[in-house]
Write a structure and sequence with these properties.
This protein is α/β, with parallel strands linked by helices. It folds into 3 domains: 61 residues, 2-Layer Sandwich (Alpha-Beta Plaits); 269 residues, no CATH class; 101 residues, Electron transport complex subunit B, putative Fe-S cluster (3-methyladenine DNA Glycosylase II, Chain A, domain 3). It is 41% helix and 10% strand. The chain contains 17 helices and 11 strands. It has a 4-stranded parallel β-sheet. Strands 7-11-10 form a 3-stranded parallel β-sheet, covered by helices on one side. Strands 1-4 form a two-stranded antiparallel ribbon. Strand 5, helix 3 and strand 6 form a beta-alpha-beta unit.
């Protein structure tokens, strides 16, 4: 199966260090022949390898703002976390006006879709009490982490579409009603804080086509936005503070109103929580808001502002925003009486781990277990695999050899050196008599002339 991945490798910049393989939460990276290799069937596009790479050899493939020229009518979708990139005295009206100045015909806040999804999450929670805990589907990296590494937990994912896609559908419908333009000629551009959302647009979970047409990195447009912060357009602001708060960790939980919840951010922290769920230890928790980036979307690698600063700025903005009218009234003013949040199908992602044939896979599993016992268990990464266990599995599937481990290689070299030394001391039987005669001649020479050489 072919997968689209927004996280890419620049082989010219890669120096073969092992920083990335140690940070990947799904062990999707190996270093082979001096260069990193990304295993496409495992990668979840969380971007941790980009954070870890000191050589800037990983990057995010995204679209360019010049693509505005490909559409007759364009709409910008800023993520809620975008507001945290600016000082808190710069409100939504100024930020949205600055976005429109980039050349867009309209701007729709994804925070509005977040409000809609929050209500849908609350309703889903009340009507589905069989499975606990329920896990938010808002972060595409977390959804893919479950698909790849915890396939038994896919039923715990709340199968609701993301705020980004909900907002895109609303914006397109409104644009068609307003302009009469062919929907296919309307371009919807999402301002993304992370690579996972780029992948969510290019290759959505469930296989359906995304209503978003292009994805721009916040970092790519940030400079122009700063330059455009000249006017205030409060009429462009459609979202409430509850939706804007989604930009930081804890915002979704607060908006959905589910009290017995767990909030976790940072992909490795999410990993540990999912392990607890898999072991059945968190069945007393109702809802888990899990986000791959530290601090939530404000910690995305495509943002600009330090995540701690961005969190404070977003909190101050939300605190100072005036109370808004109820969501139903605002939607009615936009010409939307009722909206149904689409459901998604979350299935395990198929991975050929050891072998497609079950019998052969079991045999290779046994071989991997035996090989792991022979390896040092230091998980140093020098072999190009993140752990000794991963190396053992790579060996049994033919992607590595035992001597890739420097400790095994050293033992083999020492054995070879010792064998060579012992061989050098061995004299063929035919030379034994000659050797003894030469010794007698030397001894006789010493008796005649003590000063003679040995």
């Amino acid at each position: 199966m072919n997968y689209f991945h927004s996280v890419r490798l620049d082989r010219d910049k890669c120096k073969g260090c092992v920083n990335c393989i140690k940070q990947c939460p799904v062990e999707a990276i190996r270093v082979r022949h001096g260069k990193a290799e990304i295993m496409e069937d495992r990668c979840i596009d969380c971007g941790e390898c980009i954070r870890a790479c000191p050589n800037y050899a990983k990057y995010v493939e995204r679209d360019h703002i010049d693509d505005l020229n490909h559409f007759a009518y364009t709409i910008a979708l800023p993520a809620p976390s975008l507001y945290g990139q600016f000082p808190d005295h710069i409100g939504p009206g100024r930020v949205l006006a600055a976005i429109k100045e980039l050349g867009f015909d309209d701007v729709w806040e994804v925070a509005l879709g977040a409000e809609i999804v929050s209500q849908a999450v609350g309703e889903y929670f009340k009507s589905n009490r069989q499975i606990r805990p329920l896990i938010s589907s808002a972060c595409p990296a977390v959804v893919r982490l479950v698909q790849v590494r915890f396939p038994a937990l896919v039923d715990h994912i709340i199968p609701l579409e993301s705020p980004m896609h909900v907002t895109a559908e609303l914006a397109r419908q409104a644009a068609v009603a307003k302009t009469g333009i062919d929907p296919n000629k309307i371009g919807i551009f999402f301002f993304s804080p992370c690579p996972a959302k780029v992948t969510a647009v290019k290759s959505p979970v469930g296989g359906s086509r995304s209503p978003v047409d292009r994805v721009l990195a916040v970092a790519d447009v940030y400079g122009d936005l700063l330059h455009n912060l000249r006017q205030e357009r409060p009429d462009l602001a459609r979202a409430d503070k509850t939706g804007i708060a989604w930009g930081s960790s804890g915002g979704e939980q607060a908006a959905s109103g589910i009290g017995n919840s767990l909030i976790v951010d940072g992909i490795h922290n999410v990993l540990s929580v999912l392990e607890e769920i898999e072991l059945g230890r968190l069945a007393d928790i109702d809802f888990i808001e899990a986000q791959a980036c530290p601090g939530g979307c404000i910690g995305g690698i495509l943002n600009v502002t330090n995540r701690f600063v961005a969190k404070v700025q977003l909190q101050h903005l939300v605190r100072d925003l005036p109370p808004e009218r109820p969501l139903a009234e605002r939607l009615q003013q936009l010409g939307v009486d009722k909206i149904q949040v689409p459901q998604i199908v979350v299935e395990p992602r198929p991975i050929v781990h050891l072998d497609r044939d079950l019998k052969k896979a079991m045999q290779k599993l046994q071989q991997a277990n035996e090989l792991e016992e022979q390896l040092p268990g230091l998980d140093c990464g020098s072999c190009g695999a993140p752990t000794c266990r991963a190396l053992a599995e790579d060996i049994v599937v033919g992607k590595a050899v035992e001597t890739d481990c420097i400790f095994v290689l050293r033992e083999r070299i020492m054995d070879l050196a010792l064998g060579t030394y012992n061989l050098a001391r061995t004299v063929p039987p035919a030379m034994d008599k000659r050797k003894a005669g030469m010794k007698e001649e030397r001894d006789a020479a010493k008796r005649i002339d003590p000063d003679s050489g040995t």
